[in-house]
Every structure is written in C-alpha cells, then in structure tokens.
Amino acid sequence: MGEVSHRTEKPLQVNPIRLSQPMGAVLAFLGVDRCMPLMHGGMGCTSFSKVFFTRHFCEPIAIQTTAVTDVTAILDGGDSSIVEAVQNITKKVTPSLIGLHTTGLTETKGDDIRGAAKQVNFPIVYVNTADYEGGMESGWGKTVKAIIEQLVEVRSEVRTDKVVLLPHVSMQPIEVEKLKDFIAMFGLEVVALPDLSTSLDGHLGEKQSTLSSGGVSVEEIFCLGDAGTVISIGASMQFSAEALLKKNPGMQHIHLDHVQGLAATDTLVEKLLAVTGAKLPPLGIVRWRKRLQDVMLDSHFALGQTRVMVAGEPDFIAGACQALSEVGARIGLALSTVDSPQLDSIEAARVMVGDLEDAEKLQAEYDLVIGNVHTETLAHRFGKALVLRGFPCWEVVGNQLKNDLLYEGGAYFLCEAANAAEAGRMNSHGAECRVLSAEG
Amino acid sequence: MANKPKIRELLDESGCAHNKTKTSGCNATVPGATTGGCAFEGAQISLFPYADAAHLVHGPMTCVGASWETRLTRTSWPGRDLTQMGFTTGISINDVVFGGEEKLRASIDYIVEHYAPQAVFVYSTCVTAMIGDDIDAVCRQAQQDHGIPMVPVHAPGFVGSKNLGSRLAGEAVLTNLIGTLEPEVTTPFDINLIGEYNVTGDMWQYTPLLEELGIRVLSTLSGDGRVASIRTAHRAKLNVLVCAKSLISMPRKMQEQYGIPYVSVSFYGKRDTSAGILAIAEALGNADLIGRTRQLIAREEARLEQQLIPYKEIFRGKKAVLNTGGNKSWSIASALQDLGIEVVATSVKKATEVDKEKARQYLGDKGVLMTNPGAQQAKIIDETGADLLLAGGRSLYTAIKKRIAFADVNQEKKKSYGGYAGLLNLAEDLKNALENPVFKNVARRAPWEK
Ligand code: SF4
What we know:
The complex is a heterodimer. By secondary structure, chain A is of the alpha/beta class. Chain A has three domains: 3-10 and 285-431, 3-Layer(aba) Sandwich (Rossmann fold); 21-135, Rossmann fold, CATH 3.40.50; 151-282, Rossmann fold. Chain A has 16 helices and 15 strands. By secondary structure, chain B is an alpha/beta fold. Chain B folds into three domains: 7-176, Nitrogenase molybdenum iron protein domain (Rossmann fold), CATH 3.40.50.1980; 190-299, 3-Layer(aba) Sandwich (Rossmann fold), CATH 3.40.50.12380; 308-442, Rossmann fold (3-Layer(aba) Sandwich). Chain B has 19 helices and 13 strands. In chain B, the strands form three sheets. A five-stranded parallel sheet of chain B has the order 11-10-9-12-13, sandwiched between helices. In chain B, helix 5 runs parallel beside helix 7, helix 12 (269-284) packs antiparallel against helix 18 and helix 14 (328-338) packs parallel to helix 15 (353-363). Chain B is globular. Residues 14-27 of chain B have low confidence and may be disordered. Classes of the chains: A alpha/beta, B alpha/beta. The interface between A and B is large, with 66 and 61 residues. Strand 2 of chain A pairs antiparallel with strand 2 of chain B, so a sheet runs across the interface.
C-alpha cells in the first residue's frame, strides 16, 4: 500500500476536480419522477448546475432557484423566498415533489430550511448541502438519506423478494439499469433510489425541462420500508442505508464499496444467492463471468505494463482502481475529489485528495489517465493515453450509456482501457520514430 | 469601500433597453421562476478571456468548480493559457467562520510564484461577500508586494444577473487598469474592441481586415486580450462595442472621462459585418480610409457571394424558424437571410425592446415574433411549411415530430459563425442539417406502432 494523503496543503485549488454538494443534491432529486429540485441560493449556482448536467447528459435538466439577492439575503431568513418559490413553481407545473436544498450562501446566513419546509403546503424534502464542505458525492448521499428519513413510511413486515438499491453518484444511468437487471435476474424485485436509469438515460420522448421525467416515483419511495434487503453501493451510501434500516428492523443490509471487477461482482453474487437461497446464478450471469475472465487475460498484457492515474469521486476511483489492479495495472496515482474512508483501501502507489495541478506535478508516475473532461488537456499536454470517466464529460456523447460495472461492464471497461493504453504507446512510439528519422 | 461600484447607478444605465418598461432595471429575479446566470458568471464571461492573467475565484466550489474550462475563447498569448485554468480559494467552513482573507492572500502569492501572471483578477462571490472579506485591501497589499496589477472584481452572484456582472467587470477594468500605462506608439486609427470575447476565434474572422485597412486594435475587453494593452486603452481614438449591450456603460464612461467616441456593431452575417467595418471607418472620420474600406467591403462581399453560390442553390425557397435568445433573435436571422433562407419566425422571449425592434426590421411584417416559442413553434412550422428549425437542443423533439431538419444554435459555441468567413461555416452546417436523413429516419414508426 502506498502513501495516502487525506487533505491538501495548498491554500487554493488549481484546476479543481472537486464538485459541490448542491450539485449532487440536484442530481439525486432528478432520479425521482416528476421532481423539481429547488436550490436555495443565488441564481448562478442553479444556472451553472443546469448547464453542467445538460452538457454531460445531453438532456434537458429540471431545476429552479430561490434566487436569493443581496437584499433578501439580509432581510429574509429564507422562509419567504422559499415559500414564494414553491408558489411560483406550482403555478406552472405540478411536481410530485420539491427537492429543497441549500448552498454555501444560505448556510452562511443560517437559514432554517426545516422551518421553511413546514410552511410549505406541498410535498417537499429538504436537505442541507453547503458547498463549502463535502462534495458532489456527499451531496447526493445526504439527499438520499433525507429522502428516506422524510418520506419512507415505517413498516414492520418484510417482503423477502424486494430489494432497495442505493447507487452512488458516479454510477451512470445505464449502470443503474444493469445493476437493477442483474439483481432482478435472481428473481428479486428491485427499486433503485435515486433511479437515473429511467430519467437521464437519454431516451427520445417529449421532454419538458420543467420537471424530471422518469425515475423512481414518490409512491414507490413511501413504500420502500417493506423491502427485505437494502443494497448500498459505495461508502457514501452507508448512511442512507442505515436510515432505511431504521424504518424497518426486519430489513437486512448488504453493503459493497463498489461493484467493479471480478472479485467485487463475485461478492455481490454470493450475497444475492444467500438472499434467494439459490445454488447457482442465472446462466446469463455465468456466461458473462467467463467473458470477463477471458477479457482479463486478453487485456493483462497491455494493462500489466501500464501505470494509471484515476481521478474522480472516491466511490468511483475505488471501483476503477480495483478493476484495473486485478489485471496487473499499476495505479500510480488515485486522485480523489474529497476525503473518504474508501481512500485507505485503494491499492495505489499514491492516493491523495487534490486537484489537476497535483496530477500535473506527478505526471511522470502514470501513462494512462482515467478522469473527467478536464483531464483531457493534461493528457494531451503530456502525451498520456486517456479514458474519459466521471463528471463532467462534456463534448463526448454517450456518457449515460457507459457501463463499467459487474462482469459485463467490467469486460467493456478493461477492453477500453487496454486499447487506450496501447494506442497511447503506439503514439509515443510513433513520435519517437519520427524524432529519430528526423535526426537521422 | 471606495472601490466598490455603485450598483444602483449601473442598473439605471440608459443603454439598457429593459429600463424603458421596468423600473427595477435588469435586476428582477423571482424565486422559483428565474433562469440565467449570476453576476459572477457575467464577470467571468467578460474578463476570463485575458489569458495572460490569473482569475482567482474567492468562494466555495460551485462558482468555478462547475464552470472552468467551459468557454472556447481563443488566444494567441504564447504563454500558458490561463483562461482555461480554474483557480479558486475553495473556501471551507473554517474560512466562513474566521474569514477568508488570509487564505486569499496566500492563494495570490501561490499563483504569482507558480504561474507568473501579468495580473490577478480576484472575484468575490456570494459567500465571501456575505462574510465581508475585504478583497480590496488584500488586492492593494498584494499589488504593492508583487508589483503587478491585482484587480478586485465585485460581482458576487446575488447582486443580480449576468448582464449586471459584465458591467461590474467593466467597471473593475475601468477603475483599476485603464489609464495606468502609456502605449509605446499610437496611430490615428487605434481602436478598442469592447465586448468581443473571441469565442471560437470569432474576432479573428474580421481583425485581419481591419489590419489590412491600417486600423490598429490597441486593446480589447477581452478577446485575445492582454493586460498590458487594456491598461493603455485610454489612448484609443474609438471604442467599438461588439454585440454587447451589457457593457454599454463602459464606452459611455470612457467618452466622459477620456473623450473617446464609440460605435456599436455586430459581426454576424454579411450585411452586419460590412456595416460594422464601415461604421468603424466612418467614425474614425478619414476620407481616404473610408474609401479604402468601401473597396475592401466590395471585394470581400464579391468573394463571399462567389463562394456562397452552391449553397444558395440548396437554400433557395427554404424557410426557417429560429428559436434562440437575446440579440441572436435578429443577428442570426440576418445571417440566415444573407444565405437566402427565409426566416418565417423568431423568438423574442426574453429579448429587450431594442432587440424586438431589430427583429421586426429584419423579418418584415409577415414574420412572426414568438413570445412563447415552446408552445408556438410546432404550429408555425405547420402553417408556414418551414424546412428547418434552428434552436437549442431542447427543441429537437419538435423538429423530429414535424419531420424537418434541425440545427443546434449552440454550435456557434464550438465553431465561429462570425464575419464573412464564419458565414460559410454557418452555410456548411445548415447544408449538412438539411441534407441529413437522420431526422426522418429517427421519426420512423416502430413496427408495433403501425
Ligand atoms: S450565485 Fe453566488 S455562490 Fe452561486 S455561482 Fe454565483 S457567485 Fe457563486
């Protein structure tokens, strides 16, 4: 195990990869059907978030703002702008839920959103997500926890065939769907919270950007308490699972730090078999496991000689690093947006919380970059191979259809990484040859 | 703080067409019914194109974490392009409680040491304005210690809209940079380009023509801009405001302070480009220059028309519906007309009174000015038999349902449509859209729907 640094020593961030808590909250609310995320803060935070996700998903994004101004910031404790915002929203549309969440500005003011939410005569979930602490991953996690605490009804009976899936923020829409299908193949009924697989999966349809379309319904959320099992994926989702367990003492909890690579998927299968009491998984899953094994062998040569930098949210880098390590890739640098208990378990020469300036300084330690669109400039500057992952991935299409999870996605992921590493070597080799022939 | 501009004053700016009808200026924000960026974003748009300066955002993560490296403003600055970098103090709960000034100062020092910028712009944001960090004092001290301009930009998001932020940015430049350096040489034809950000290299479509005429761009705010040049901007003979009403206060104040006249121009489409170049020459008031300019325009237009022949063939009789915002409602309409496309409707939702007037001028009496394009455009496509919808991605589904071609107006953020040459880019993209079978293919009925 290499060096792990949980905090950065610099006074500032240069080329940051950290994203804010309110943005995670927005995304979580967008996984609820007909929801209107309402950001309590200046209008710019909302506008930036909207543009950010629109460009990542190539989809209209529903979101509104309480549009706090310098005047209301001083005069209003938050209640009146929140109440007015809900009134104005519901004049035009009828959401199933308002997703109220704060920003740094309104947290600094100390607004009492719980009190404000009480004054609102409309289904609402509130959550505190200051953007001067945590990050996108924790914002998503906190929101899921708040949804569970405030909406799920207490139950005592359990349906053993029902599973609640709590995915972490970095799982793309198709990955949520694949994981739901995987669990369903074991004969279980599965509800994901949030469920981006039906809202931001990029399906053609009449979409209004005024409300989210698709996602888990509020009625389904009310009834999550009767599930026999809750499966949380990612360290950031632990708290949400614990909140759900409080709704029903009979529920059992399966936690996985991620579901990338052979070993992690094996663990999931083992646990699902235990839930259902079956001896063998469905045939399709067995087949995919063999394919992944084959890809692992096919890709080990390319990846075994490759040093990798993986940058992103903690739950994502934990999974990606594990999948790559299984075929002998060496993780030169695991660069995390924020601190997380996950960081201690990542197998890498160096694990750190930092920004892309840090990544630049350590560029001699890796040949392949796995990270968001901002790593592209860095990869080009230093002639590194690149696989785009994480938020944001602008100017590429198909982000919502990228699947890296389980046996199947794991196979695709290794192929893509191996091919990128190989192409990177060809390029730098080509460049060397050109230099040599030019000199000769 | 003497340095802080008076926001009221800026809101009452006469150049803002909103003011004719609304008493609240451009600052109206309604909780739950507001779209658009904040003042900080406006400041960022106006100043980040200075690639030789560092842009340090003093605030929490949302402000720049979600927005750095977003705009394709191009620069010829040979050093590292600092526009495309994100610098933020990324303040924490600790800073909120105890103040962020120390962190801000340490961040400035770090940037100067590691990136040697020509200046540092320091942006306050909602949280740091709220906790009362004195960024003026920090900047003053840092400027003294490092000997390069440190420019405090007071445009925290909650003071208002993007437009106001742009104005506040202009204000910061006016107070802190302009007039602080003398140019090495001056010419009778020195101009400043204000509000041209060189997105996708737009500006480079026409600056070579100005150069050919002997018109020198002394400085810009801020496309392909340099700190050292904008400091000399007070010596220009003319200010040219490019397609940017949000910055109108700037040339007006420079007229008062330095006696520099200004003209307002746009470089979209053939007619506007020609009119813009001529307006500059005429304002510089030299008969010989004006004569040469007319010759150059005739030459360029002839060359362009030649190149457009095959496109115009394709566009003949084609009708378009345009759903975009602000000044694009007429500037793109005008460009489409230059290509021989009939614009049957354009959106004036959110447009200012001046923009509406201009849209009416360009579209004529028959043209429809849509106030609620989302609801209107489908019907108008039916009624007019339009062949093409130009809009933001959101309207794609309308085009597919109506089985007509679609072009995303936001492509201009990736490719330049400015000047004469940009019109060819636009023509090529529209030709591709009209010829692309994808819209009809996608609209195929599924076998189970037959
Ligand atoms: S509204 Fe305030 S906090 Fe939000 S992005 Fe703008 S400056 Fe930053």
